[in-house]
Sequence to fold (268 residues):
Amino acid sequence: MELDRNRWWFVFYEHNIILQKSEDGKLDIPFKAQLEFNQPNPDTIHEYCFHDKYPCTAVKLSTAPAIDSAKYIMLSLRDSFFHLDLWKYQAAGSAQQLIYWDENTRFCPACGTATERKSLIMKKCPKCEKEQYPPIQTAVIVLIRKGDEILLAHAHNFKYEFYGLIAGYVEIAETLEESVRREVKEETGLNIRNIQYFGNQPWPYPSGLMVGFIADYESGEICIQEEELRNAAFFSKDNLPALPQKLSIARRMIDWWLDQQIKKEQDK
Ligand SMILES: [Zn+2]
Fold:
């Protein structure tokens, strides 16, 4: 198979992406890459146009690539955010989701027969004809205001020592607002009101969509769910703990609130 090199190449090995080093030390997605690593298995190559604009190839190598460290570096998708243009980070996220979906849909979940790939995002079982598409796991995340403070929490699954917002997966037959209310009640014991949509963000770890909401505290005392959280408290803008990194919608929401607090002070 002759590979079309005239594309952006999103090459993964295990959980890392390979980036190219330019002469000025910047990192980028390899383009027109003379791919100097192992030839990938053609069955694992996905070619598509990201946002109908950028020709991309997503591929995951099955063996460790022998990369020239003067030209390439491997790092996690999260860390790539701090080096790449936004569209390239988003395209890398979509590449990782495609690969993850491909790896996990080799067989029909209904009858166990090997599936056939029919398009970039559709596989079909040749026996029972069940179709499979990449699933999106929807999660909600909420910033809760109480006077001049917001609720921040440290969850056990946070990788670093920062405090973030309350979040969780949407359950079957729930609206997004019901999910927000339930997660807050379960994890903190608090009741909230005035739940307003803020924005959303694809979250390719491994295939989520994070939907952000702003809400106001209504009643209750903080009583944390100890299996999920280590600590939760209300913080004012002047005593904030370490915050989530800039790549997350959590941080975008906190920054939005901070801007509002600063404007309020200036208007006084
Ligand atoms: Zn089947």
User: Anything to note?
Assistant: Residues 137-267 form a domain with the Nucleoside Triphosphate Pyrophosphohydrolase fold (CATH 3.90.79.10). Residues 186 and 209 are 21 Å apart (CA to CA). Residues 249-267 form the longest helix (19 residues). The pocket of zinc ion is lined by residues 108, 110-111, 113, 125, 127-128, 130 (CB under 6 Å).
